[in-house]
Amino acid sequence: MRAPGDPPASDLAALLRRVSETLALETPFAPTGALRRVRELLATVDFARPLSSQDTLALLTELLRAGAPDLKNPRHFGLFHPPVDPLAVAATALSAGLDAQLAVNGAAPGAIAAERHALAWVAARFGLPPAHHGSFTSGASASTRESLLHALAAAHPGFVDDGLAALPGRPAVYASREAHASLEKAVRACGLGARALRRVRCDASWRMDLRALKRAIRDDRAAGFAPLAVVATAGTTNTGAIDPLPELAALCEAESLWLHVDAAWAGAAALSPRAAPMLEGISRADSIAWDAHKWLPLPIAAGVLLTRHPALATRLWSVDAPYMPRDHSPHPMPFRETARWSRGFEGAGLFAWLAREGAEGAARWVDAGCARGEALREAVRDAGWTVLSPVPLPLACFSHPRIRSAGLSPQRAAAALRRRGAAGVSETWIDGRVPALHGTAMHPGLGLEDLDALRVALRDVAETA
């Protein structure tokens, strides 16, 4: 029996129809007054007076849309945020409606098998061996944090039982200055401390400088530190730079260091035979982080962690509880091979999208993104701006002499472009010293009209803003 006041199950179809109608609504390109509107909406909710399901959904719709950019607008060039495919939304809603629970094999055998099936296909695209470990996470930040724990368990067998007390010296983790800032959170969360992170300088293409890395490792060993891992980036947030993966793999093998590759957004290039060569060397990584939702049209979050050392995952995370079932299937139960216990069917969107698109469709999606990136960079160059992005990915990082001379701030330029409705771009600094604008070409509907509007606006902003 359902509780009094609960809507019958048939209401789910009506609510989903309402959601579908909401997804088709237009949103202002550059919304204003968001915080004021949010406060007004929340002032109507004191939780003393119950709302109907329809009124609650209407309230949530307004809250979610207040101040949020329109992802359906191809002139939204925000950080790796493509519009979401309705099939992925439906798959996610279906798994939520059935409340799939993926802690143990017997609770959701189909969902667990579907996730493993999709992850195995993705791992093969990255060149990992059949014997690997794969899991879904909340995103690359969580994947990288977990990979460092794998690295600690691999380098120091006593770490699983004794923690950091088992380490003979203070560990050091190496990453380029352009590597993601979440690394600072990762080393703190793993108990290594912020000082364990070594930021290595970049070369002229914004990639990790190999000679500087070798020197940092040598100096740390001489000073009594214990180098642990190198975190390479395949597609930095700022410029899309891809660190020299083959050389880093060889160095890590020679130095007995764990190689983790943060391929959060550009990792999707592995799905295309044409784009995959950009990731040469990634198959030699000990672990890889990839966020499927940052290039593919999937709802957040579809983070993926892959490692070529499956036994480590079980050694690190395996626990028992008297209330948990004993399972003798070929695969360990999920709660024994990941940091989490209860979780939902996070791979539903990726599995559904891959099942419909197939390998060729996935490759076409990636190739189309790379083509849009080149068109975006061409429009930027035509407008007299300098492109700083070194690789053919769907990203444009660009600057202008007026910005470099401090005559025009990147913040003011980005705001002017948004006001004109020409582009939703963001401002950034590369290597902490080069001011620039940043945009990604993730929207499949980006066309000539949008690029022409951007070209005209960039010229105008450079002259008048």
How do you describe this structure in short?
With 465 residues, this protein is α/β, with parallel strands linked by helices.
Instruction: Report mean pLDDT, rounded to a whole number.
Output: 92
Q: Assembly state here?
A: single chain
SS elements, strand count: 11
Note the gap between the termini.
Answer: 64 Å
Tell me about the largest β-sheet.
Answer: 7 strands, mixed
**In what order do the strands lie side by side in the largest sheet?**
1-7-6-5-4-2-3
Strand content: 5-15%
Number of helices: 15
Can you tell me the overall shape?
Answer: globular
Structural class: alpha/beta
- Helix content estimate: 40-55%
Low-confidence stretches: none
Report the order of strands and helices: HHHHHEHHEHEHEHEEEHHEEHHEEH
Radius of gyration from CA coordinates: 24 Å
Task: Note down, in words, how this protein is organized.
The chain has 465 residues and is α/β, with parallel strands linked by helices. Helix content is 41%, strand content 12%. It has a seven-stranded mixed beta sheet with strand order 1-7-6-5-4-2-3, sandwiched between helices. Strands 8-9-11-10 form a four-stranded antiparallel beta sheet. The mean pLDDT is 92.
